Each structure stands twice: as structure tokens, then as C-alpha cells.
């Protein structure tokens, strides 16, 4: 039986090849192209990684600006709220429910007029019981005081009556002794008069001793009763005040504000109920960025915009406490203008420094950076890199740059809130 091909290796191009030789030649041909391709791919990946940023952002989603040299007058912009100058806060004196609302927010009120009446039946009953006990004690003490006073008066009246009878007996005896000296009467007639005087004198003396012995004790008891009665009267007034306290009254005349209650609404002692504006004027209260805390001082001028007109004002008070990245400033108006409490107004505080500086718009990026760094766009417009900068004076719309930027460079001024910790950003799409 003949075989389809020789069993021993045969050299020459015209002779058939084994399967192993065919696979080896195919791998050798492919490797000639595969190795350079792999090297090229690795190089492309490396270059890509070298150019890739920490984050890719659409160029259309960011706002950019060019660094320009401009004249800047430092000013702090704010959005202020109108508040009454002397606002009186009303709070619930007792825990209970709203029984009656006598006025509405915006109404004028006289001092002492009721604004809200509360209801707490259990509490009112307890106060009424306490008041009844106080009044009963007042009656008992007053009665005792009256009894002590009457007893003292009785002792005095008894002594005065006995002294009067003694004096009368002494006068009769004197007259009888005159008659006795003239022999107009005998001793037997005069002797009873002497005995009568001795008796009246003894009775008067005993009553005097009783009066003087009991007097200090009674006066002490009367004084104690009087002091206790005065304390009871104070307790009575306080307790009546607690009952009346369920009626919340205006402490001063003015206009009621913030009265937003419903009949039947539950309140706790100390809860705010309303305010009364006595009409002594208004202030503008604003929260300024902490950046300005060392630059804003009492007396600095400023303005607010009212109906398209700049109304002058000045800083009345600065609170240096930093909270939530800002501090509180109170501003007083320099001219009369009709403003409503709660109204929001835009304004500015003029600061001292001014001049021509490289500057950028005061964009939202300042909220995240406080002016210490910024993203600078490369010349190709495709990459933005984080760079440390130092800012100076600020106007409401621009920020001076002391170092870190050059005139003509382009930066991102929109918010960085979504950039995270990225140091390099790839800008995709069309460059703004």
C-alpha cells in the first residue's frame, strides 16, 4: 500500500511540508508584524495616560475668564434683611393651647392689650386652688392681727378707765381734806375717800402692769402677722399674675409681627408666639464672607439698592464670631426710606483700598477656594491645572490677584463643587 506523502523529511521548495513546519513559518510571519504593533500600542497608551487629567469635564459646562488689569475699589457685597431696631419678642408664659387670637400680624397694638389667650384647664385649676389657699390664709392672719390689736386696745382702754377713776378719787379726797382742815367735816367722813383712792390706785397699777407686760409681745406678734400678711399679698399678686399670664399682652405699643398661630395649636412655655415692633426704626442685617472680617469696621459707609436707587448707610455693629464661613454685620440707614421688616435688599460696604490690579471676576469658585487657588487653562484650551494664587482686595464683581497669575491667562471661575480633589482637568468638547 502506497502512502500519500514520503515518510522521511524532504528538502526543496517543491516538496510537501510537515504540519509543524507550516505552523512555525506562520508564527514567524505574524511575529514580524505583532511585535512592532504591541510596542506602538503601549506607547500610545503611555502617551494617553500622560495627557489624561484626574477628571474630564465638558468645556461648555464651565465658565471661564481672562486675567485683566483693571481699576478696583474694594467693597464687600451682601444681601441684607430688614429687621426692626428694637423688636420685642413674645413667648408663651405657660404650656397650653391657643384659645383666642385677638390680633393679626401687621395690626397695631397698644401697650397692655391682649394678643393671644392660652388655655390649660389643669394648670388653671391648680393655680386657682393655690389662690384660694392663699386667700384663706390671708383671712386667718388678718383676723389674728385684728384680734391682737383689739386685745392691746382693750388693755389700754381698761388702764385708761382705771386711771381716770383713780384721778377722780384723788380729786374728791383732796377736796374732803380741805374741808377736814377747816373742821367742816370729821375724819370718819374722809376715811372712806382715802380707802377708795387706794383701791383705785391699786387697780390702775395692776392694769398698767398687764398692759406693759403684754404690750411688747402683742406688738411683736402684730409685726410678724403684718409681715406674713404682706408676703401673702405678694403671693396672691404673683398667683393672680399666673392666671392672667394665660393672656399674652403687648408690653409696648407698636405693630404685631410674626403672629402665625392657629386656634387649638399646642405650645410649650418659652415658645415664641409673636413680636412687637415699637416703631423705632429698622436695621439692615447681613452675613458677610469671613474674608472681610478684618476689613469691615464700625462707621464704614455703604449703600443698599431700593427701587433702583442707592440709599446710603453705615456699619453700626460688627460681630467678629465666624459661623458657617461668615460673620454678622448690622447697618444703619443714613436717610429715611420706607422699608418693610423681612425685606431682602442687595448692598455693598465700601472699603478703603483701591488701585489698578491684575484681576478676575468674583465667580462661584471663591466659595470652594477662598481665593487661595484656581484652575488655569493651558494654551491649547484642552487642559486646566490647579494653581496656588494669592488674592488681594475685592470688589463686588472682581478680585485682585497679587501673585500666581499673569495678565492674559485664562481661568475657570464657575463653581468647583463637582471637581473633588482633582489637580488636572481635561476639557472635552468645544472650548468656551
What would you note in describing this structure?
- By secondary structure, this protein is of the alpha+beta class.
- The protein folds into three domains: 57-83 and 281-428, Elongation Factor Tu (Ef-tu), domain 3; 92-118 and 246-277, OB fold (Dihydrolipoamide Acetyltransferase, E2P) (Beta Barrel); 121-243.
- The protein is 36% helix and 32% strand.
- The chain is built from four helices and 22 strands.
- It has helices at residues 19-51, 121-181, 187-244, 366-369; strands at residues 55-58, 64-66, 68-84, 88-91, 96-101, 108-109, 114-119, 247-249, 254-257, 266-267, 272-277, 282-289, 301-306, 309-318, 326-333, 344-361, 373-377, 383-388, 390-394, 398-403, 410-412, 424-428.
- A six-stranded antiparallel beta barrel has the order 3-12-15-14-13-16.
- A hairpin with a 7-residue loop joins strand 14 (309-318) and strand 15 (326-333).
- The longest helix has 61 residues, at 121-181.
- It is rod-shaped and about 180 Å long.
Brief overview:
With 432 residues, this protein is an alpha+beta fold.
Structural class by helix and strand composition = alpha+beta
Indicate the low-confidence ranges by residue numbers. Answer: 1-15, 42-52
Q: What Rg is obtained from the alpha carbons, in whole angstroms? A: 52 Å
Number of domains: 3
Top-tier CATH class of the largest domain? Mainly Beta
Percent in strands = 25-35%
Figure out the total of helices. 4
Number of strands: 22
Widest beta sheet: strand line-up: 3-12-15-14-13-16
CATH topology of the largest domain: Elongation Factor Tu (Ef-tu), domain 3
CATH architecture of the largest domain: Beta Barrel
SSE order, as H and E? HEEEEEEEHHEEEEEEEEEHEEEEEE
Q: What proportion of the residues is helical, as a percent range?
A: 25-40%
Biggest sheet statistics = 6 strands, antiparallel, barrel
3D shape:
rod-shaped
The average pLDDT value, as a whole number, equals: 81
Measured distance between first and last alpha carbons: 84 Å
Write out the CATH superfamily name of the largest domain: Efflux pump adaptor protein, beta barrel domain
